[in-house]
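Below: protein 1.
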Amino acid sequence: MNIHVLPREVFNKIAAGEVVDRPYSVVKELVENAIDAGASEISVEIESGGKGLIRVTDNGGGIEKEDLPYAFLPHATSKLESAEDLFGVKTLGFRGEAIASIAAVSKMKIVSRAGDKEAFSLSSNGGNMGEVLPAAGARGTEVTVEELFFNTPARLKFLRSDQQEEGDVANMMARFMLSRPEISFTFTANGKLKYRSYGDGLSSAIANVYGAGILRELYEIDADKHGIKLRGFIGNQNFSKPNRTYQSLFVNGRYVVNQTVSAALTNAYASYLMKRQYPFYVLFLDVPPEIVDVNVTPNKSDVRFADNQIIYGSVYSVVSAVLDGNSRALEYLAKTPDPTPVQETIPLGDVPSQHKVLPPMSYDEAKKELAFDIPTVSSKVSLPRRDLTDARLNFEVNSSYASPAETKEKEDYFEENKKILLEEEKKQKQQKVDVKSLRFKGELFRTYLFYECGDDAYIVDQHAAHERLIYDRLRQKLADRTASSQPMLVPFVLTLNGPEFAFMCKQLPVLEELGFEVGEFGGNSIKVSAVPSDLMGMDLAAFFAEIVSSMESLRAIKLADLLKDKLASAACKAAVKGGEFLTDEEAAALIARMDGDMGLKCPHGRPVAVHLKRSEMEKLFKRIV
C-alpha cells in the first residue's frame, strides 16, 4: 500500500468529526470565536435543533476583507504564532480548525464588517469557497450555517431528535451566559426566545438561567488558596439537584468537565447529599496558564493540570470549610462591601480576617500545607487514573478463563438457584387456601382478623391486605392504560434546563397515557394540568425530580415503575386503617378479594397474613413438647 496525502476535502471532513460532531459543537465554536473577537452582544438562532439553521451574530472586532478567505482554511488562526504560545493560551479558540471543519460539512456564509469599514461576505458549499463580495452588515460578524452534514449522510443519521439537539444547544448557551456574565446573550430556537441575559453580572446570569429564586439557596465564594483563585456560587448544605447538568466549572474562563475538581466537590458534599443527588455549582477556577494544559482534546472539553493534588486540595478545603461552617469560611465567602472603612490605628493582628491581605504562597509551600490541610480522598470518589490498561487487560484475561472445576461449580450454583425457585413456587401454592374452607373467628385490636381452616389458623392484617388489593388494582389500571385524569385547580409548572427539557419532552406521550395532562409551557417549562385520578395529592415536584434523575444513568424510563411508590402511597391512604372496625360482611368481602392467597405482601414488603399450625399453638401452651 502506497502512502499518500489525503485530499483537503477528505482531511477537513475527518477533522470535522473531531471538532464538530453535533449542532451544539458548531454553536460552541462560533460563540467562542465571537467572544475572542471582543463582542459585548452575541445572538444565536437555530432551527430544527440546529440541523437546518445556525446563525451567530456578534458586535466584535470583525474580519478584514483580505482575511476572509483565510478564515475558511484549516489551521489558519490569529490567536497563535508559535508552539510556545500553547503554554500561555488565553483565548477560547486557538487551533484554527473550527471554521474549516464546519464549512466542510455544511452550507456556510460569513458576513463581517471590521470597525467603520465596509462589510463583505464569503460563502462555502461543503468546503468549496465562493468569492468575497460586498455586503450589508453592522459592525461585527454574522455566521450562518445551513443543512449541517448535508454531504455526510452517515453522520447525519446519528444526530438526535430536534428537541434533544435543541436541548444540548440550550445547555451550551446557558454555560456561555454563566461563563461570560459581562456579555449580553440572546438565544432563539424556531423563532421562540429561550434565553436572554443582559451582561450585568454573574448573579443576574444565574437568575436568568435558573430563576431568581435559586439565589437564596447559594453561597457566593471568592477564595485565593495556594495561589489558586476560586470564585462563584455553590449550593448550600440542603440544596441539591437530581443530575449533573447543574454543575458548571470554568477553568481560566473555559467550560470544562474535569474529574479532579469534580471529585473534590463531590467529597466536600459527601456528608450532606442523599443518594442520587448532586451538588449545584457555578465555579470559576483561575490558575496560571503555565500549570494547565488546554490542548488535551480536540473539542477542548477538559484540561490537564501540572499537579492534580494541588487543585484537588485547594477546591476541597475551600468548599468543605464553607459547608461545614468552620472558622476559615469567612476567608472564602465573598465579601459584601463595608461602608465603614477599617481604622488605620487598629493593629494588623486585630484586623478582621476579611480585611487581611495574605501573602502569596509558593508552589512548594502549598504542597507542604496540603499535607496537613486536606484529609485523605474518600473511597466514594477517587482522583482520575491516567492508565488502567494493564488492570483492564488482567481483568479480561482472568474473567474469560475458567478451569473445569470452576465450570462445575458454576453449574452447581445455577442448579441450586433453580431448586430454590422451585421450592419458592411450591411454597406459594401451599400458602393459597380455599376461601370457602375459612371460618371467621373474630378480630383483635380492630386490626387483625382471625380465620380457622382445619388444623391451621390465619391472622390477617386488614390494612396490609386492603392496601395490597388497592395497589394491584391501580397497577392493573396503569397496565391497561385505563387511568382517568383529574384536572388540577392550579396547574403545576416545572422549570427545567435545556437537556432536562429535551429529555422530559420524550416522556410526554407516556405520561399522557398514564393519565397526566402535560405540555410545553414556554421556554424550558412543562405544565401539568391534570393527574391520574388515583394519584391526586401526590408530590409532583418529587415525582418529576425522580424522572429527571434518570438522565444521570441514561437508563430507559419505565414510568409505571417510577409510579410504584406513588401507587403504594395512594393505596396506603385509601385502604382501611388499623383500628377501624369491620363488619362480618366487610371482613368476608376482604378475604374473598384476596382469593385465599395468604402469601401476599403489602407494597412496602410487610406480610398480609401470618400462618399458625395447631401444633405450634399447642407447643405454646405446653400441650405437646
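Below: protein 2.
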Amino acid sequence: MRLFLTFRNSRIRPIGMVLYLLIILFLTPGSGWGKRTHDLFFQGTDYELHVYRIYGEEPGKTLLLIGGIQGNEPGGFLSADLYADMALAKGKLIVVPRANFYSILLNRRQINEDMNRQFAETSEINYEAKIVAILKELISESDCLLNLHDGSGFFSEKWESAMRNPNRFGQSIISDSETYTIPETGKTLHLGDMARHVAEQINRYIEEPGHRFHFNNHRTRNTDTLHPEQRKSATYYALFQCGIPAFGIETSKSLPLETKVRHHNFAINAFMELLGIVPETPGVYLDPPVMRYIAIAVNDKIPFAVPNGYTLQISSGDMVRISHVEANYKRGLSADILDYGTVNDMHKPIRITRPTQVVVRKDRHPCGMINIVLDAAQSQLRTVTAVPEASFFKTRINGDERLFMNNAHVDLIKGDRFELIDVTTNLEDPSEVIVNFKGYVGNLQNNTGEDRGYVIHTGRDLWKRYSLYGEGKQYQIVVLHGETVLGRLFVRLTDPVFEYVILQVNRGIKRCLFPGDSLAISPEEPIQILDIKTNIPKNAGVRAFLKGSDTNVPLFSDGEAFPWGSGSRDIGPENRPYRIVVQREHIILGSIFLDLEKGRSYGG
C-alpha cells in the first residue's frame, strides 16, 4: 500500500501533525515490528558486548539467547551467532552471541569471576558485574531465556560411568525446577514438560542413542540439590526473580564442534516453535576465518586500508587507531597490536614507538596480520607496501603429510608427532629464512632457532613457559627473514581423552565400558578388546594392557587387538587387583577394573 500526503503550505495543524506522526510511526519501514537493532556496550574495551534485537513482521513472544557467558564453550556462542542476522515472520529474538568476549579471546571459562555466578547480589565491581546488569535488563524484556553452554560428559539420571552420571551436564536441557508458580499472578510454569517436549524434538535428528538429550532438573531451591551453586546463575534469576521459563542448553564437550553447534540449533529452533516464534532457520557456517584488510588511521587522518600480510610504515610517536576489520565473518573479530594495549585494541588510540605487528583474531583464532615499521628518516610519509610472506607450511603429523596456509591453526592431541618439513615463501632466495617453533629446541648444543626436520613429540618436547599465555595449550611457529616476520602457524594442543572401550567376553556379549567402570567375569573366560574410542585420530599410539601387581599383558596397540584368555598363567590371587589400562605411551588415559569371580559368567 502506498500513501500520498499533500500539504498546501508549510504549516501543519496540530490534529494533522498527530495524524502525520501516527502514519510515520506505523508505516515507515524499519520502525516497530519487522525491524532489527544492534546495541554496542563498552566499545573499545576487551569485553565489548553486542546485543541484537530481531522483530518479526507480526508481534509475539520474546526469546533471549545468551552465548559465550563462559568463554571456553564455543558451541554455544557460535550457534547464537547464527541467529543475529535472522529474519522473523512472527515473534522477537534478543541475541547476545558473546556475553563474555574477553574470556572467549583467551579461551578461558572466566577472567575475574564466573559470569554465570554473578546473578545473585554481589558487592564486586568488575566488568563481569557490569555485563550481568545489562543481561538482567534483557531478561526482564523476555518471555523465555536460553543460556547456551558446552558441558562435561553426558548427563544421566543414574550413575553409569565417570563420564555419564547425574553430575555431568552434557546433552541435557537444564532447569531449576519441574514447575514454578508465580506468586504475583498464580500462573504455573511447566518447565519439565517444556524441556521434555524440546528434547523429544531434538532427538528426532540424533541417531546415536548416547548423544540424545534429556531433561535435567537441578531442583536448585531444594536443600538436597546437587547444584546449590546454580542459585547464582542466569536461569535461576530469570525464573525466580523475573517469573519466566529459563533453561540451560548443554551440549557435550566430547562432541565435534560442528555437532555441538547443530545440536544447539535444534534446541533453539524447537523452543522457538514452542513459543510460536516463526524463524528463518540459519545454516551452519564454519569456514576457516580469513582477514582481508584492516582500516587503520594514523594521527586521526583518513584511514589506510592495509591488506592481510602487508606493512604500514609510519614515524616513531605516531598515533594509530584501528576502526574496522574486513573478513569473511562479521562478528567475533578483534585486533591485537602486539606489545601495546590489551588483547583487543580496536578503536583505541595507541602511540607507536617501536616496530610491531597487528594480529587479527576471529574469537580466539588468528586469521590475519599486518606489520607496522618505523621510518628512520622521520619523513612523515606513511606508506603501505606488500612484504615478503610465507604462503604454506608443509608438515607431517604422525607420519601423514599436511599442508597449512599462513596464519592457520593446527589442532593436535598431546603426544602427536609433529614435523615441520618446509615453508613456501615469495622470496627469490629463501636460504636465510628461519622456521622457529616457539617452545621447542631441536639442538640444545647449537640452538639456531631453525626447527625444520625435527620430529617433535608434543607430549614431552615442548616448554610450557614459551607457549602463548603460558598455559601449555597454544604455541606459535614463526617464519623469520632477518627481523621480519613472514608468517605464523598456530598449534593448539588438547589432552588425549579415552571415551569408552568395546569388550567381548567369551565370544559372546559385547559390552561398552567407560573409564572407571568395573566388569565381573569368571577367571576361565577369555576377553577381547574390539575397539577403543578416543579423540586421537586412528588411535595413533593408543595401547591397552591387563595389569595386576605383577602382570602386564598387551591387549590392544595402534588399532590392533590381541585376544587374551583370563584362565592363563598370568592370573593369580597374588596379582590382584586387575585393571585394563588404556594409555598413550607414558600418558595414562583411564582404566577399566576387572573383578574375577569364580563361577560367575557374563559371556552368554
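Residues 257-275 form the longest helix (19 residues).
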